[in-house]
Amino acid sequence: METILTVNHLTKKFGPLTAVKDLSFTIEKGNVYGILGPNGSGKSTTLGIILNVVNRTSGDFSWFDGSTSTHEALKKVGAIIERPNFYPYMTAIQNLKLVCKIKEVPETKIQEKLELVGLWDRKDSKFKTYSLGMKQRLAIASALLNDPEILILDEPTNGLDPQGIHQIREIIKKIAGQGTTILLASHLLDEVEKVCSHVVILRKGEKLYSGLVDGMMASYGFFELRAADMEQLKSFLEQYASFGKIDSYNGTLTAYLKEEMDAESLNKILFEKGIVLSHLVKRKESLEQQFLNLTKNN
Amino acid sequence: MLRLLQIEFIKLWNNRASKVLIISYFILLTSIALIAAIKFDIGPVQFHLADQGIFNFPYIWHFNTFVAAIFKLFLAIVIVSMMANEYSNKTIKQNLIDGFSKKEFLMSKVLTVISFALISTVFVFVVSLILGLTYSDYNELSIIFSDLEFLLAFFIKLVGFFSFCLFLGILVKRSAFALGFLILWTILEQVVFGLLGWKVMSWPAAKRVKDFFPLESMMNLIKEPGSRLSAVQNIGDQIGENLRFDYHTYWYEFLIVICWTAIFIYLSYLLLKKRDL
Protein backbone atom coordinates (compact mmCIF):
# COMPACT_ATOMS: atom_id res chain seq x y z
CA MET A 1 0.00 0.00 0.00
CA GLU A 2 1.23 3.43 -0.92
CA THR A 3 0.97 5.95 1.90
CA ILE A 4 -0.33 9.38 1.01
CA LEU A 5 -0.38 11.09 4.37
CA THR A 6 1.07 10.24 7.75
CA VAL A 7 0.07 12.21 10.83
CA ASN A 8 2.08 11.69 14.00
CA HIS A 9 1.07 12.90 17.46
CA LEU A 10 -0.32 16.13 16.08
CA THR A 11 -1.38 18.71 18.65
CA LYS A 12 -2.79 22.18 18.20
CA LYS A 13 -3.56 24.61 20.98
CA PHE A 14 -5.43 27.87 20.63
CA GLY A 15 -4.46 29.55 23.88
CA PRO A 16 -5.88 27.41 26.69
CA LEU A 17 -8.03 25.39 24.28
CA THR A 18 -6.67 22.20 22.80
CA ALA A 19 -8.26 21.80 19.40
CA VAL A 20 -6.35 18.71 18.32
CA LYS A 21 -4.80 16.37 20.86
CA ASP A 22 -2.09 13.88 20.03
CA LEU A 23 -3.69 12.77 16.80
CA SER A 24 -2.13 10.04 14.64
CA PHE A 25 -3.44 8.32 11.53
CA THR A 26 -2.36 7.40 8.04
CA ILE A 27 -4.08 7.67 4.69
CA GLU A 28 -3.45 4.94 2.14
CA LYS A 29 -3.85 5.34 -1.57
CA GLY A 30 -7.15 4.31 -3.15
CA ASN A 31 -9.40 4.41 -0.08
CA VAL A 32 -12.18 6.83 0.72
CA TYR A 33 -11.76 8.19 4.23
CA GLY A 34 -14.23 10.01 6.39
CA ILE A 35 -13.26 12.20 9.30
CA LEU A 36 -16.22 12.26 11.62
CA GLY A 37 -16.87 14.35 14.62
CA PRO A 38 -19.33 16.80 16.07
CA ASN A 39 -18.86 20.51 15.49
CA GLY A 40 -15.71 21.79 17.16
CA SER A 41 -14.09 18.37 17.38
CA GLY A 42 -10.98 19.54 15.51
CA LYS A 43 -11.74 18.28 12.01
CA SER A 44 -11.14 21.54 10.22
CA THR A 45 -8.15 22.38 12.38
CA THR A 46 -6.53 19.05 11.48
CA LEU A 47 -7.14 19.66 7.80
CA GLY A 48 -5.87 23.23 8.19
CA ILE A 49 -2.62 21.95 9.62
CA ILE A 50 -1.93 19.39 6.92
CA LEU A 51 -2.86 22.00 4.30
CA ASN A 52 -0.32 24.53 5.51
CA VAL A 53 -2.73 27.23 6.71
CA VAL A 54 -2.70 26.50 10.43
CA ASN A 55 0.51 26.20 12.41
CA ARG A 56 0.85 23.10 14.56
CA THR A 57 1.80 23.29 18.22
CA SER A 58 3.62 19.95 18.27
CA GLY A 59 3.81 16.66 16.44
CA ASP A 60 4.37 16.32 12.74
CA PHE A 61 2.92 15.12 9.48
CA SER A 62 4.34 14.16 6.13
CA TRP A 63 2.93 13.99 2.65
CA PHE A 64 3.67 11.04 0.40
CA ASP A 65 7.09 9.65 1.21
CA GLY A 66 8.00 12.73 3.20
CA SER A 67 10.71 13.89 0.81
CA THR A 68 8.97 17.02 -0.50
CA SER A 69 8.08 20.23 1.28
CA THR A 70 4.45 20.69 2.24
CA HIS A 71 3.72 23.34 -0.36
CA GLU A 72 5.24 21.26 -3.16
CA ALA A 73 3.21 18.25 -1.99
CA LEU A 74 0.05 20.35 -1.96
CA LYS A 75 0.40 20.83 -5.69
CA LYS A 76 -0.48 17.14 -5.98
CA VAL A 77 -3.42 17.53 -3.62
CA GLY A 78 -6.85 18.96 -4.28
CA ALA A 79 -8.58 20.51 -1.31
CA ILE A 80 -11.64 22.49 -0.41
CA ILE A 81 -11.93 23.93 3.06
CA GLU A 82 -15.32 25.08 4.38
CA ARG A 83 -16.34 27.89 2.08
CA PRO A 84 -15.19 28.25 -1.52
CA ASN A 85 -12.69 31.09 -1.69
CA PHE A 86 -12.13 32.69 -5.07
CA TYR A 87 -11.58 36.18 -6.42
CA PRO A 88 -15.16 37.52 -6.63
CA TYR A 89 -14.42 39.90 -9.49
CA MET A 90 -12.95 37.22 -11.72
CA THR A 91 -14.81 34.74 -13.93
CA ALA A 92 -14.70 30.98 -13.39
CA ILE A 93 -12.16 30.60 -16.19
CA GLN A 94 -9.92 33.39 -14.88
CA ASN A 95 -10.00 31.95 -11.39
CA LEU A 96 -9.11 28.48 -12.64
CA LYS A 97 -6.28 29.84 -14.80
CA LEU A 98 -4.86 31.44 -11.69
CA VAL A 99 -5.06 28.12 -9.83
CA CYS A 100 -3.27 26.43 -12.75
CA LYS A 101 -0.46 28.98 -12.44
CA ILE A 102 -0.14 28.37 -8.71
CA LYS A 103 -0.23 24.61 -9.06
CA GLU A 104 2.06 24.78 -12.09
CA VAL A 105 -0.18 22.62 -14.24
CA PRO A 106 -1.20 23.33 -17.85
CA GLU A 107 -4.54 25.05 -18.47
CA THR A 108 -5.77 22.25 -20.72
CA LYS A 109 -7.84 20.55 -18.03
CA ILE A 110 -10.07 23.53 -17.32
CA GLN A 111 -12.80 22.63 -19.79
CA GLU A 112 -12.92 18.98 -18.76
CA LYS A 113 -13.25 19.79 -15.07
CA LEU A 114 -15.83 22.53 -15.57
CA GLU A 115 -17.89 20.11 -17.61
CA LEU A 116 -17.55 17.46 -14.91
CA VAL A 117 -19.18 19.78 -12.36
CA GLY A 118 -21.65 21.18 -14.88
CA LEU A 119 -20.41 24.76 -14.99
CA TRP A 120 -19.06 24.99 -18.52
CA ASP A 121 -21.93 27.16 -19.77
CA ARG A 122 -21.36 29.60 -16.89
CA LYS A 123 -17.60 29.74 -17.41
CA ASP A 124 -17.55 33.45 -18.24
CA SER A 125 -19.69 34.58 -15.32
CA LYS A 126 -18.04 36.33 -12.43
CA PHE A 127 -17.61 34.25 -9.29
CA LYS A 128 -19.69 36.68 -7.23
CA THR A 129 -22.75 36.00 -9.40
CA TYR A 130 -22.69 32.27 -8.56
CA SER A 131 -25.06 30.58 -6.13
CA LEU A 132 -23.54 28.76 -3.17
CA GLY A 133 -24.01 25.41 -4.86
CA MET A 134 -22.23 26.62 -7.98
CA LYS A 135 -19.41 28.11 -5.91
CA GLN A 136 -18.96 24.77 -4.20
CA ARG A 137 -18.90 22.96 -7.53
CA LEU A 138 -16.38 25.42 -8.91
CA ALA A 139 -14.24 24.71 -5.86
CA ILE A 140 -14.38 21.01 -6.68
CA ALA A 141 -13.42 21.69 -10.30
CA SER A 142 -10.52 23.79 -9.06
CA ALA A 143 -9.37 21.07 -6.68
CA LEU A 144 -9.39 18.55 -9.52
CA LEU A 145 -7.38 20.64 -11.99
CA ASN A 146 -4.16 18.81 -11.20
CA ASP A 147 -5.76 15.34 -11.20
CA PRO A 148 -4.83 15.11 -7.53
CA GLU A 149 -3.50 12.06 -5.74
CA ILE A 150 -5.92 12.85 -2.98
CA LEU A 151 -9.00 15.02 -2.79
CA ILE A 152 -9.72 16.63 0.56
CA LEU A 153 -13.23 17.88 1.18
CA ASP A 154 -14.25 19.71 4.32
CA GLU A 155 -18.02 19.82 4.80
CA PRO A 156 -18.65 19.97 1.06
CA THR A 157 -22.43 19.99 1.38
CA ASN A 158 -22.69 22.49 4.21
CA GLY A 159 -25.38 25.08 3.61
CA LEU A 160 -26.55 23.60 0.32
CA ASP A 161 -30.16 22.84 -0.62
CA PRO A 162 -31.17 19.18 -1.18
CA GLN A 163 -30.56 19.47 -4.90
CA GLY A 164 -27.13 20.97 -4.35
CA ILE A 165 -26.29 18.27 -1.81
CA HIS A 166 -27.34 15.61 -4.28
CA GLN A 167 -25.20 17.13 -7.06
CA ILE A 168 -22.13 17.31 -4.87
CA ARG A 169 -22.61 13.70 -3.71
CA GLU A 170 -22.96 12.49 -7.26
CA ILE A 171 -19.73 14.27 -8.16
CA ILE A 172 -17.93 12.78 -5.16
CA LYS A 173 -19.14 9.30 -6.06
CA LYS A 174 -18.01 9.79 -9.64
CA ILE A 175 -14.55 10.86 -8.48
CA ALA A 176 -14.31 8.03 -5.96
CA GLY A 177 -15.30 5.66 -8.75
CA GLN A 178 -12.26 6.78 -10.72
CA GLY A 179 -10.03 5.51 -7.94
CA THR A 180 -9.01 8.86 -6.46
CA THR A 181 -8.23 8.78 -2.76
CA ILE A 182 -10.68 10.98 -0.90
CA LEU A 183 -10.62 12.43 2.59
CA LEU A 184 -14.03 13.71 3.55
CA ALA A 185 -14.67 15.62 6.75
CA SER A 186 -18.24 15.86 7.76
CA HIS A 187 -20.65 15.73 10.63
CA LEU A 188 -23.33 14.33 8.35
CA LEU A 189 -23.04 10.64 9.02
CA ASP A 190 -25.18 9.28 6.26
CA GLU A 191 -22.98 11.20 3.87
CA VAL A 192 -19.89 9.45 5.16
CA GLU A 193 -21.68 6.11 5.33
CA LYS A 194 -22.66 6.39 1.69
CA VAL A 195 -19.22 7.05 0.27
CA CYS A 196 -16.49 6.13 2.75
CA SER A 197 -14.75 2.84 3.36
CA HIS A 198 -12.63 4.04 6.29
CA VAL A 199 -13.32 6.46 9.11
CA VAL A 200 -11.41 8.48 11.67
CA ILE A 201 -13.63 9.60 14.52
CA LEU A 202 -12.73 12.62 16.59
CA ARG A 203 -14.19 14.09 19.70
CA LYS A 204 -12.81 17.22 21.38
CA GLY A 205 -9.64 16.85 19.37
CA GLU A 206 -9.02 13.25 20.35
CA LYS A 207 -9.16 10.22 18.13
CA LEU A 208 -11.79 7.70 19.22
CA TYR A 209 -11.52 5.29 16.34
CA SER A 210 -9.79 4.85 13.04
CA GLY A 211 -10.23 1.99 10.64
CA LEU A 212 -12.84 0.36 8.48
CA VAL A 213 -16.40 1.61 8.67
CA ASP A 214 -17.62 -1.98 9.05
CA GLY A 215 -15.22 -2.73 11.86
CA MET A 216 -16.26 0.21 13.94
CA MET A 217 -18.22 -1.86 16.40
CA ALA A 218 -18.25 -5.55 17.02
CA SER A 219 -21.90 -5.88 16.22
CA TYR A 220 -23.95 -8.64 14.67
CA GLY A 221 -26.92 -6.46 13.91
CA PHE A 222 -30.49 -6.88 15.04
CA PHE A 223 -33.88 -8.24 13.95
CA GLU A 224 -37.14 -6.35 13.70
CA LEU A 225 -39.98 -8.82 14.24
CA ARG A 226 -43.75 -8.87 14.33
CA ALA A 227 -46.13 -11.76 14.86
CA ALA A 228 -49.77 -12.34 15.78
CA ASP A 229 -48.87 -13.41 19.32
CA MET A 230 -46.24 -10.94 20.42
CA GLU A 231 -46.05 -12.22 24.00
CA GLN A 232 -45.21 -15.74 22.88
CA LEU A 233 -42.57 -14.39 20.48
CA LYS A 234 -41.00 -12.28 23.17
CA SER A 235 -40.82 -14.99 25.81
CA PHE A 236 -39.29 -17.41 23.28
CA LEU A 237 -36.61 -14.95 22.22
CA GLU A 238 -35.75 -14.10 25.82
CA GLN A 239 -34.90 -17.76 26.43
CA TYR A 240 -32.90 -18.11 23.24
CA ALA A 241 -29.13 -17.76 23.84
CA SER A 242 -28.28 -15.91 20.62
CA PHE A 243 -30.15 -12.81 21.67
CA GLY A 244 -29.22 -10.10 24.10
CA LYS A 245 -31.39 -7.09 24.64
CA ILE A 246 -34.98 -7.20 23.40
CA ASP A 247 -36.97 -4.00 22.96
CA SER A 248 -40.63 -3.65 22.25
CA TYR A 249 -41.68 -0.51 20.45
CA ASN A 250 -44.83 0.35 18.50
CA GLY A 251 -45.88 -3.28 18.23
CA THR A 252 -42.52 -4.34 16.86
CA LEU A 253 -39.88 -6.35 18.69
CA THR A 254 -36.26 -5.40 18.21
CA ALA A 255 -33.96 -8.26 19.16
CA TYR A 256 -30.18 -7.61 19.25
CA LEU A 257 -27.92 -10.48 18.28
CA LYS A 258 -25.03 -11.71 20.40
CA GLU A 259 -23.72 -14.00 17.70
CA GLU A 260 -24.01 -14.38 13.96
CA MET A 261 -27.39 -15.57 12.73
CA ASP A 262 -29.16 -15.07 9.41
CA ALA A 263 -32.81 -14.22 8.91
CA GLU A 264 -33.59 -17.49 7.19
CA SER A 265 -32.57 -19.69 10.12
CA LEU A 266 -34.43 -17.54 12.65
CA ASN A 267 -37.55 -17.75 10.54
CA LYS A 268 -37.20 -21.50 10.37
CA ILE A 269 -36.71 -21.94 14.11
CA LEU A 270 -39.68 -19.75 14.94
CA PHE A 271 -41.91 -21.52 12.43
CA GLU A 272 -41.00 -24.88 13.93
CA LYS A 273 -42.06 -23.50 17.34
CA GLY A 274 -45.37 -22.52 15.85
CA ILE A 275 -44.71 -18.80 15.72
CA VAL A 276 -45.58 -17.29 12.33
CA LEU A 277 -43.98 -13.94 11.60
CA SER A 278 -45.75 -11.15 9.78
CA HIS A 279 -42.64 -8.99 9.65
CA LEU A 280 -38.95 -9.92 9.63
CA VAL A 281 -36.03 -7.60 8.88
CA LYS A 282 -32.38 -8.03 9.72
CA ARG A 283 -30.42 -4.80 10.09
CA LYS A 284 -27.01 -3.50 10.98
CA GLU A 285 -26.75 -0.49 13.23
CA SER A 286 -26.49 2.66 11.14
CA LEU A 287 -23.28 4.63 11.34
CA GLU A 288 -25.21 7.24 13.24
CA GLN A 289 -26.14 4.79 16.02
CA GLN A 290 -22.63 3.41 16.14
CA PHE A 291 -21.20 6.90 16.23
CA LEU A 292 -23.50 8.00 19.02
CA ASN A 293 -22.66 4.86 21.00
CA LEU A 294 -18.98 5.39 20.51
CA THR A 295 -18.97 9.05 21.49
CA LYS A 296 -21.21 8.29 24.46
CA ASN A 297 -19.26 5.37 25.87
CA ASN A 298 -15.91 7.08 25.97
CA MET B 1 10.01 34.68 -10.66
CA LEU B 2 8.08 35.32 -13.84
CA ARG B 3 5.41 32.91 -12.61
CA LEU B 4 5.01 34.86 -9.35
CA LEU B 5 4.63 38.11 -11.28
CA GLN B 6 2.14 36.56 -13.68
CA ILE B 7 0.03 35.32 -10.78
CA GLU B 8 -0.10 38.75 -9.21
CA PHE B 9 -0.78 40.33 -12.60
CA ILE B 10 -3.84 38.10 -13.14
CA LYS B 11 -5.14 39.09 -9.71
CA LEU B 12 -4.61 42.82 -10.25
CA TRP B 13 -5.52 43.27 -13.87
CA ASN B 14 -8.88 41.53 -13.60
CA ASN B 15 -9.90 43.86 -10.78
CA ARG B 16 -11.54 46.88 -12.32
CA ALA B 17 -10.81 49.26 -9.43
CA SER B 18 -7.11 48.40 -9.45
CA LYS B 19 -6.93 48.68 -13.21
CA VAL B 20 -8.50 52.15 -13.19
CA LEU B 21 -6.19 53.34 -10.42
CA ILE B 22 -3.06 51.98 -12.11
CA ILE B 23 -3.97 53.56 -15.44
CA SER B 24 -4.83 56.88 -13.77
CA TYR B 25 -1.51 56.81 -11.97
CA PHE B 26 0.47 56.51 -15.18
CA ILE B 27 -1.67 59.13 -16.88
CA LEU B 28 -0.95 61.46 -13.97
CA LEU B 29 2.77 60.75 -14.26
CA THR B 30 2.62 61.75 -17.90
CA SER B 31 0.67 64.83 -16.98
CA ILE B 32 3.77 66.33 -15.38
CA ALA B 33 4.45 67.38 -18.94
CA LEU B 34 1.36 69.54 -18.76
CA ILE B 35 3.13 71.85 -16.31
CA ALA B 36 4.98 73.05 -19.38
CA ALA B 37 1.73 74.41 -20.67
CA ILE B 38 1.24 76.75 -17.69
CA LYS B 39 1.42 80.15 -19.20
CA PHE B 40 0.08 83.50 -17.98
CA ASP B 41 -0.23 86.21 -20.54
CA ILE B 42 -1.68 89.28 -18.85
CA GLY B 43 -0.70 92.35 -20.84
CA PRO B 44 2.87 93.31 -19.89
CA VAL B 45 3.26 90.38 -17.46
CA GLN B 46 4.23 87.31 -19.38
CA PHE B 47 4.83 84.20 -17.37
CA HIS B 48 5.63 80.87 -18.90
CA LEU B 49 6.49 78.27 -16.29
CA ALA B 50 8.54 76.27 -18.76
CA ASP B 51 10.78 79.32 -19.23
CA GLN B 52 11.51 79.63 -15.50
CA GLY B 53 14.14 76.95 -15.66
CA ILE B 54 12.20 74.13 -14.07
CA PHE B 55 12.87 71.96 -17.09
CA ASN B 56 16.57 72.66 -17.19
CA PHE B 57 18.89 69.71 -16.91
CA PRO B 58 19.85 68.52 -14.38
CA TYR B 59 17.29 70.32 -12.21
CA ILE B 60 14.46 68.59 -14.05
CA TRP B 61 15.48 65.23 -12.51
CA HIS B 62 15.00 66.68 -9.09
CA PHE B 63 11.79 68.51 -9.85
CA ASN B 64 10.04 65.72 -11.75
CA THR B 65 10.90 62.95 -9.31
CA PHE B 66 9.65 65.14 -6.48
CA VAL B 67 6.34 65.86 -8.19
CA ALA B 68 5.92 62.29 -9.43
CA ALA B 69 6.42 60.95 -5.91
CA ILE B 70 3.26 62.75 -4.81
CA PHE B 71 1.19 60.50 -7.08
CA LYS B 72 2.45 57.37 -5.36
CA LEU B 73 -0.62 57.56 -3.14
CA PHE B 74 -2.67 56.12 -6.01
CA LEU B 75 -0.54 53.01 -6.13
CA ALA B 76 -0.53 52.88 -2.34
CA ILE B 77 -4.29 52.33 -2.46
CA VAL B 78 -3.84 49.56 -5.03
CA ILE B 79 -1.12 47.87 -2.99
CA VAL B 80 -2.89 48.06 0.35
CA SER B 81 -6.07 46.65 -1.17
CA MET B 82 -4.33 43.92 -3.13
CA MET B 83 -2.96 42.67 0.17
CA ALA B 84 -5.99 43.28 2.37
CA ASN B 85 -8.39 41.77 -0.18
CA GLU B 86 -6.55 38.48 0.01
CA TYR B 87 -7.58 38.38 3.63
CA SER B 88 -11.15 39.60 3.22
CA ASN B 89 -11.81 37.21 0.31
CA LYS B 90 -9.88 34.50 2.16
CA THR B 91 -8.12 33.82 -1.12
CA ILE B 92 -4.79 33.77 0.70
CA LYS B 93 -6.00 30.58 2.37
CA GLN B 94 -6.97 29.07 -0.96
CA ASN B 95 -3.64 30.13 -2.51
CA LEU B 96 -1.75 28.33 0.24
CA ILE B 97 -3.92 25.23 -0.05
CA ASP B 98 -3.37 25.22 -3.80
CA GLY B 99 0.34 24.89 -3.18
CA PHE B 100 1.69 28.42 -2.81
CA SER B 101 4.23 28.66 -0.02
CA LYS B 102 3.97 31.64 2.30
CA LYS B 103 7.32 32.82 1.01
CA GLU B 104 6.19 32.62 -2.61
CA PHE B 105 3.01 34.45 -1.71
CA LEU B 106 4.92 37.33 -0.17
CA MET B 107 7.52 37.28 -2.95
CA SER B 108 4.83 37.69 -5.59
CA LYS B 109 3.63 40.81 -3.78
CA VAL B 110 7.12 42.19 -3.24
CA LEU B 111 8.09 41.59 -6.85
CA THR B 112 4.95 43.38 -7.97
CA VAL B 113 5.82 46.32 -5.75
CA ILE B 114 9.35 46.45 -7.15
CA SER B 115 7.97 46.29 -10.68
CA PHE B 116 5.64 49.18 -9.96
CA ALA B 117 8.55 51.23 -8.66
CA LEU B 118 10.73 50.26 -11.60
CA ILE B 119 8.13 51.06 -14.24
CA SER B 120 7.39 54.38 -12.52
CA THR B 121 11.08 55.26 -12.52
CA VAL B 122 11.48 54.43 -16.20
CA PHE B 123 8.34 56.39 -16.93
CA VAL B 124 9.54 59.47 -15.09
CA PHE B 125 12.92 59.14 -16.76
CA VAL B 126 11.41 59.10 -20.25
CA VAL B 127 8.92 61.91 -19.60
CA SER B 128 11.62 64.08 -18.02
CA LEU B 129 14.06 63.38 -20.82
CA ILE B 130 11.55 64.43 -23.47
CA LEU B 131 10.52 67.53 -21.50
CA GLY B 132 14.11 68.42 -20.84
CA LEU B 133 15.19 67.99 -24.43
CA THR B 134 12.31 70.26 -25.46
CA TYR B 135 12.70 73.05 -22.90
CA SER B 136 16.11 72.85 -21.26
CA ASP B 137 18.60 75.65 -21.79
CA TYR B 138 21.48 73.23 -21.46
CA ASN B 139 21.71 70.27 -23.75
CA GLU B 140 25.20 68.92 -23.27
CA LEU B 141 25.22 65.19 -22.62
CA SER B 142 27.30 65.53 -19.47
CA ILE B 143 24.73 67.92 -17.99
CA ILE B 144 21.75 65.89 -19.11
CA PHE B 145 23.03 62.84 -17.34
CA SER B 146 24.24 64.49 -14.18
CA ASP B 147 22.29 64.27 -10.92
CA LEU B 148 20.72 60.98 -11.99
CA GLU B 149 20.85 59.90 -8.35
CA PHE B 150 17.42 61.49 -8.02
CA LEU B 151 16.02 58.67 -10.14
CA LEU B 152 17.68 56.12 -7.89
CA ALA B 153 16.29 57.98 -4.90
CA PHE B 154 12.85 57.94 -6.51
CA PHE B 155 13.05 54.19 -7.04
CA ILE B 156 14.21 53.46 -3.49
CA LYS B 157 11.61 55.81 -2.10
CA LEU B 158 8.79 54.06 -3.95
CA VAL B 159 9.97 50.57 -3.00
CA GLY B 160 10.23 51.65 0.64
CA PHE B 161 6.84 53.31 0.69
CA PHE B 162 5.11 50.42 -1.07
CA SER B 163 6.69 47.87 1.29
CA PHE B 164 5.26 49.90 4.15
CA CYS B 165 1.84 49.71 2.44
CA LEU B 166 2.20 45.93 1.99
CA PHE B 167 3.08 45.53 5.63
CA LEU B 168 0.09 47.62 6.71
CA GLY B 169 -2.17 45.56 4.44
CA ILE B 170 -1.00 42.35 6.10
CA LEU B 171 -1.06 43.80 9.60
CA VAL B 172 -4.50 45.42 9.45
CA LYS B 173 -6.14 43.06 6.92
CA ARG B 174 -8.74 45.69 5.91
CA SER B 175 -7.85 48.13 3.14
CA ALA B 176 -9.77 51.11 4.48
CA PHE B 177 -8.35 50.73 7.98
CA ALA B 178 -4.85 50.19 6.62
CA LEU B 179 -5.03 53.44 4.67
CA GLY B 180 -6.35 55.17 7.78
CA PHE B 181 -3.43 53.75 9.69
CA LEU B 182 -1.05 55.12 7.05
CA ILE B 183 -2.42 58.63 7.56
CA LEU B 184 -2.35 58.16 11.32
CA TRP B 185 1.29 57.08 11.09
CA THR B 186 2.18 60.20 9.09
CA ILE B 187 0.68 62.38 11.80
CA LEU B 188 2.25 60.26 14.53
CA GLU B 189 5.75 60.84 13.18
CA GLN B 190 5.22 64.59 13.39
CA VAL B 191 3.70 64.37 16.87
CA VAL B 192 6.59 62.28 18.17
CA PHE B 193 9.03 64.76 16.60
CA GLY B 194 7.18 67.61 18.27
CA LEU B 195 7.19 65.91 21.65
CA LEU B 196 10.86 65.01 21.40
CA GLY B 197 11.89 68.53 20.50
CA TRP B 198 9.62 70.09 23.08
CA LYS B 199 10.25 67.93 26.13
CA VAL B 200 13.06 65.44 25.62
CA MET B 201 15.92 66.99 23.67
CA SER B 202 16.98 69.99 21.68
CA TRP B 203 15.27 70.72 18.36
CA PRO B 204 18.32 69.91 16.21
CA ALA B 205 18.71 66.59 17.99
CA ALA B 206 15.00 65.87 17.54
CA LYS B 207 15.39 66.69 13.86
CA ARG B 208 18.17 64.13 13.63
CA VAL B 209 16.05 61.45 15.30
CA LYS B 210 13.17 62.30 13.01
CA ASP B 211 15.34 61.52 10.00
CA PHE B 212 15.24 57.90 11.12
CA PHE B 213 11.44 57.61 11.07
CA PRO B 214 10.26 55.52 8.12
CA LEU B 215 8.09 58.03 6.27
CA GLU B 216 10.37 60.94 7.14
CA SER B 217 13.41 59.09 5.85
CA MET B 218 11.60 58.43 2.59
CA MET B 219 10.75 62.12 2.35
CA ASN B 220 14.42 62.97 2.85
CA LEU B 221 15.44 61.05 -0.24
CA ILE B 222 14.09 63.76 -2.53
CA LYS B 223 14.13 67.14 -0.84
CA GLU B 224 11.75 69.91 -1.73
CA PRO B 225 13.01 71.42 -5.04
CA GLY B 226 11.12 74.74 -5.08
CA SER B 227 13.76 76.80 -3.30
CA ARG B 228 16.41 75.57 -5.69
CA LEU B 229 14.97 77.58 -8.57
CA SER B 230 17.14 80.57 -9.35
CA ALA B 231 14.10 82.81 -9.39
CA VAL B 232 13.16 81.76 -5.88
CA GLN B 233 16.74 82.08 -4.67
CA ASN B 234 16.95 85.60 -6.07
CA ILE B 235 13.89 86.60 -4.13
CA GLY B 236 15.38 84.96 -1.04
CA ASP B 237 18.58 86.96 -1.45
CA GLN B 238 16.60 90.18 -1.77
CA ILE B 239 14.68 89.63 1.44
CA GLY B 240 17.82 88.48 3.20
CA GLU B 241 17.03 84.81 3.63
CA ASN B 242 19.55 82.23 2.60
CA LEU B 243 17.57 79.61 0.72
CA ARG B 244 20.57 77.67 -0.55
CA PHE B 245 19.92 74.41 1.24
CA ASP B 246 21.66 71.16 0.73
CA TYR B 247 19.63 69.23 -1.84
CA HIS B 248 21.79 66.25 -2.24
CA THR B 249 20.94 62.83 -0.98
CA TYR B 250 23.56 61.12 1.14
CA TRP B 251 24.40 57.45 1.22
CA TYR B 252 23.20 57.04 4.78
CA GLU B 253 19.81 58.41 3.78
CA PHE B 254 19.54 55.66 1.18
CA LEU B 255 20.68 53.17 3.79
CA ILE B 256 17.97 54.16 6.29
CA VAL B 257 15.22 53.65 3.73
CA ILE B 258 16.70 50.35 2.53
CA CYS B 259 16.79 49.17 6.14
CA TRP B 260 13.15 50.11 6.67
CA THR B 261 12.22 48.28 3.46
CA ALA B 262 13.96 45.15 4.70
CA ILE B 263 12.30 45.47 8.11
CA PHE B 264 8.82 45.86 6.62
CA ILE B 265 9.22 42.89 4.30
CA TYR B 266 10.64 40.74 7.07
CA LEU B 267 7.88 41.72 9.50
CA SER B 268 5.30 40.93 6.82
CA TYR B 269 6.85 37.51 6.43
CA LEU B 270 6.84 36.91 10.18
CA LEU B 271 3.18 37.90 10.40
CA LEU B 272 2.27 35.60 7.52
CA LYS B 273 4.19 32.75 9.01
CA LYS B 274 2.87 33.09 12.54
CA ARG B 275 -0.77 33.67 11.81
CA ASP B 276 -3.29 30.86 11.52
CA LEU B 277 -5.71 31.42 8.69
From TrEMBL, chain A:
Alphabetically ordered keywords of this record: ATP-binding, Nucleotide-binding, Transport
Family matches, as PROSITE patterns: ABC_TRANSPORTER_1, ABC_TRANSPORTER_2
Transmembrane segment boundaries: none
Start and end residues of each ABC transporter domain: 5-229
An example molecular function term from Gene Ontology annotations: ATP hydrolysis activity
A Pfam family assignment: ABC_tran
Domain of life: Bacteria
Gene3D superfamilies from the UniProt entry: P-loop containing nucleotide triphosphate hydrolases
Presence of the UniProt keyword ATP-binding in the record: yes
Family, as annotated: Belongs to the ABC transporter superfamily.
Name of the protein this chain belongs to: ATP-binding cassette domain-containing protein
Automatic annotation (TrEMBL), chain B:
GO molecular function, one term: ABC-type transporter activity
Keyword Signal among UniProt keywords: no
Membrane-spanning ranges: 20-40, 60-84, 105-130, 150-172, 179-198, 250-272
GO cellular component: plasma membrane
Keywords from the named record: Membrane, Transmembrane, Transmembrane helix
Pfam families in UniProt: ABC2_membrane_2
Designated name of the protein: ABC transporter permease subunit
UniProt organism field: Flagellimonas olearia
Lineage of the organism: Bacteria, Pseudomonadati, Bacteroidota, Flavobacteriia, Flavobacteriales
